[in-house]
Amino acid sequence: MTTEAADTAALLTSAREALERYLEVHVDDDGALTFSHADVPCVIQATRLAEGLTVLSLTCVVAWDLPDDPAIAASAAERAGQGLFGTLGVVRSEKGIDITLRYAFPAEGMDPSPLGTLLMLVVSTASQLRGDLLGIGPGE
């Protein structure tokens, strides 16, 4: 195994262990981590950008196949300006619009507790946004 592969595998293992305190996490064949939080599917991947700089990339699919309504896109854009963790994306498709939340950060050397907290902040933001966009209250 190359150093890059070992670094990314170790980082994904740390992320899995940190998230398993809160959620059920699956490891895909390619090593990516997948899980759901409040009906928001998420994936985490690791990439080494340079020597000593391995990042985790978290993508949450907040909503999909929403009506292509300018008000929904405007709401997502307004919400994007309020967020501290992640970048919102709006993608148009034949079925409507899909909204994602992405967050990438250098995570090498992070202890499991703060790593789990940081990941859950992003995931909770995605879940809250989903609820806001779909008019779903907590626990519904």
Structural description of this entry:
With 140 residues, this protein is an alpha+beta fold. It has one domain (2-134): 2-Layer Sandwich (Yope Regulator, Chain: A). It is 38% helix and 36% strand. It is built from three helices and six strands, in the order αββββαββα. It has helices at 3-19, 70-82, 112-134, and strands at 26-27, 33-37, 40-50, 53-66, 87-93, 96-106. Strands 1-2-3-4-6-5 form a six-stranded antiparallel sheet. A hairpin with a 2-residue loop joins strand 3 (40-50) and strand 4. The protein starts with a helix and ends in a 6-residue tail after the last helix. The model has no long low-confidence stretch (mean pLDDT 89).
Radius of gyration: 16 Å
Q: Which bin fits the share of residues in helices?
A: 25-40%
pLDDT < 50 runs, ≥5 residues? none
Structural class: alpha+beta
The number of strands is 6
- Please give the alpha-carbon distance between the first and last residues: 45 Å
- Mass-distribution shape: elongated
Major β-sheet profile: 6 strands, antiparallel
* CATH second-level architecture: 2-Layer Sandwich
Strand content: 35-45%
CATH class: Alpha Beta
CATH fold name: Yope Regulator, Chain: A
Widest beta sheet: strand line-up: 1-2-3-4-6-5
List the domain count as a whole number: 1
User: What string, H for helix and E for strand, traces the elements in order?
Assistant: HEEEEHEEH
DSSP helical segment count: 3
| Mean pLDDT over all positions | 89
